[in-house]
Specification:
alpha+beta; 4-stranded antiparallel sheet; 2 helices; about 20% strand; elongated
């Protein structure tokens, strides 16, 4: 006696969103991977002594004050046409043009240059 056989199509859907799976799986997969990861980077400093925290906060405040002075020199009550400030291995220079201010930040150690162009708004009455 013959018995009829039945079958259906096999379909495969990957779980990992990197390979076309559901994008909502990414947070879960990252959490699982981080939970299983027991590697400690030896180059990463994990000391957070009070002196380290104080030094970071002091450096942040000093850089904030310096950036305020630069903004005041560019946009303050008596704006300058150009200027250069050097500190901590970096040189920041600015030049005021007719329609923009060009701010150039140069890392003296690596020679890397970052240029920021800030448009100026001219009030026409």
């Amino acid at each position: 006696m013959a018995v009829p056989a039945s079958a259906q199509d096999l379909s495969y859907e990957p779980i990992d969103p990197s390979f076309g799976g559901n994008p909502f799986n990414s947070a879960h997969l990252l959490g699982v991977a981080n939970a299983q990861n027991d590697y400690d980077d030896p180059d990463r400093a994990t000391t957070n002594s009070q002196a380290d925290i104080f030094a970071r906060q002091l450096q942040s405040r000093l850089l904030s004050a310096l950036s305020s002075q630069i903004v005041d020199a560019i946009f303050g009550d008596n704006p300058q046409e150009r200027g250069t400030i050097s500190f901590g291995g970096q040189t920041i220079s600015f030049v005021r043009g007719l329609t923009e201010i060009t701010l150039t930040i140069t890392d003296n150690a690596t020679g890397e240059v970052t240029t920021i162009v800030i448009p100026t708004f001219i009030d026409v009455d």
